[in-house]
Design goal:
Layout: H1 3-11, H2 15-36
């Protein structure tokens, strides 16, 4: 259904039903906002899970030909 068709359908309704359509649209929008809510993260929750090896900055043997 295109926007024009939707507008035509809503416009053909009586004013009281148009108000109900507006209320339903607002309900759907508020329902969508609740789904988007992101869970708050705690600072330091992955402490100790990430390890950087001591030879992290050393050159790779695979690239010896290019250096």
């Amino acid at each position: 259904m295109t926007n024009t068709q939707l507008f035509t359908q809503i416009s053909s309704l009586p004013v009281t039903l148009q108000k109900e359509v507006i209320d339903f649209i607002e309900f759907l929008k508020s329902k969508q906002k609740k789904k988007v809510k992101i869970k708050e993260r705690k600072f330091g929750c992955v402490k100790g899970m990430i390890v950087i090896h001591p030879d992290f900055d050393s050159p790779l043997e695979d690239f010896d030909d290019y250096q």
